[in-house]
Write a structure and sequence with these properties.
The chain is an alpha/beta fold and about 200 residues long. It has six helices and seven strands. About 35% of the residues lie in helices and about 20% in strands. The N terminus is likely disordered. Its EC number is 3.1.1.29. Keywords: Cytoplasm, Hydrolase, RNA-binding, tRNA-binding.
């Protein structure tokens, strides 16, 4: 049994899943971060509700006595995600160190992920806008790989398309692993989560 870090402050973790609003985008690669939030909410029996920060928010614990989570999906399009995130941070009086952003990542192969704290946006427009709005990149990112597009297909078209049939068979495991990573970051810290979830890809 692995040890579990107890956060005596009980300060919640704000977990933001990036994506685009509306049912037309819900199943696309760009919205994988919001798929991960749906998994986390289901685990904790949390219900998403409209919030004054132009977001949809669910609050609660996944495990009894475990960390408190605020799960948030901005109601804006991906490239203007920063406004809702900064409003959420102010509303809940949180520091960037308590923010975990879950998003798709072209530069990581499908069915793998990378976890990191800080750094730049890596060309991801949603992360770029969050950094601009917060004035810092010092937050944790769960980067869920969607891979580069095949052939001559453009990156924008790739992320706005739904996962292929072969990918959809594996997708539930990808989402579950990313949700597990979020939980472990909150309970055991980023380093422990990296040791478990980073792959050689």
């Amino acid at each position: 049994m692995r040890s579990r870090h107890v956060d005596s402050s009980d300060t919640p973790w704000l977990v933001v899943g990036l994506g685009n609003p509306g049912p037309g985008y819900a199943a696309t690669r760009h919205n994988v971060g919001q798929m991960v939030l749906a998994e986390l909410a289901a685990r904790g029996g949390m219900k998403f509700k409209t919030h004054k920060t132009n977001s949809t928010v669910a609050e609660g614990r996944i495990l009894p006595g475990g960390p408190r989570f605020i799960l948030a999906k901005p109601n804006t399009f991906m490239n203007v995600s920063g406004g809702p995130v900064s409003q959420l941070m102010r509303f809940y009086s949180l520091e960037p160190s308590r923010l975990i952003v879950v998003h798709d990542e072209l530069d990581i192969p499908f069915d793998t992920m990378k976890l990191k704290f800080g750094g730049g946006h890596g060309g991801h427009n949603g992360v770029r806008d969050v950094i601009a709005a917060l004035g810092t990149g010092d937050f944790t990112r769960v980067r869920v790989g969607v891979g580069r597009p095949p052939g001559q297909q453009g990156a924008a078209d790739h992320v706005l398309r739904e996962f292929g049939s072969a990918e959809r068979k594996v997708l539930p495991n990808v989402i579950a692993d990313a949700a597990d990573a979020v939980e472990q970051i909150a309970t055991d810290g980023l380093t422990a989560a990296q040791l478990r979830f980073h792959t050689s890809a």
